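During the reporting period the student researcher (J.K.) took over the structure-prediction task from the postdoctoral fellow and processed the backlog of single-chain submissions. One of the processed entries is reproduced below for the supervisory committee.
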Amino acid sequence: MPRLAKLRYLVRREKHNIRVFHEVLRSRKPDIVYFWNLGHTSRCLAVLAKQAGFHTGLFAFDLGLLADDNDLWTSQSRLIMVSPSRLAQALFLRMAGILIARPTAGLPEFDFVHCPTRFLERKLKHGALRSKSWEQICWGVDTEKFYPGEAVEPGKILFTGQVAEHKGVHILLEAFSQLVRRHPISTMQLTIAGPLLDANYKRRLDALVEENGLADHVEFTGRVDRADLPDLYRRHAIYVFPSIWEEPMGIGILEAMASGLAVVCSGTGGSGELFTDGESGLLFRSGDAQSLAERIYYLFQNMEKTTRIRKTAREAIVNSYRWSLTVKGIWESVNPKSQQIQKLKEIPVLHA
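J.K. obtained the following structure tokens:
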């Protein structure tokens, strides 16, 4: 799409969203406007709600709100401003923003923010997201979809997520090659399920597979439909989360635990907050393939302990991470605030 046409589309979309959002606020008159993560959504909506006098809340489960790339208007503005040759486009976008009454404020300010991990809360605060209060509320898993299946061979290992360097997939392959040499059984199988982000990185992974003779033991599935994930988990015994970067949370960890898998995790960022090391999962040193191989081998050698970990992991999800508990936590946080706002509305205003 030509750049000018792209900008026109952006202005039309933003104008429509702002108009509809104002209509909803006027017709519904909510006590609180609660935003769900605001990922790939115009941040200006939260600013508009605040400017209109509404109390605002946010459930944040990643760092997307801090990234300009996740707000199309802001990202296009940045691209234009770094290129002097696009001055006309910058003026077009600036004037269009004024005409459609789009606020120019940066990050919105909230009355309260909910986060699933303490790490994510710290990162958002460090990233200059402002809120009057912060609360930790668990991320939920649908335990009726993600549940343990029949027993599978212990050598069935699974990774889900983006196939990218920051996810540490190469670390997993290096560890797996050590396991195959140490534990040479035909049932050893590693499934790497997720979208490929970098063709060069995939060539690097393919080289690792070839160099270590793993072609019969490693499968790259590509992107997996959401509906097919529960069955994918149930076909495996061990779930590895080898991420190198500081993960805000780790949805795959919770889904794997709900499915009764033994989780082996690097523990970066907030991922290590989701289970208890040695009880409902195992930690390894981030970026260390040997450490990862040793933790997986420990599970192979201690099947009674592995069974307890898998059982405890499932119990932890049922007791603390069900979607109903997430909804309950949000409601118990939001409802008193809403009631307080309603009481304030009932107080008559005295005019001098």
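The committee noted the following: The chain is about 45% helix and 15% strand.
J.K. will present the remaining backlog at the next meeting.
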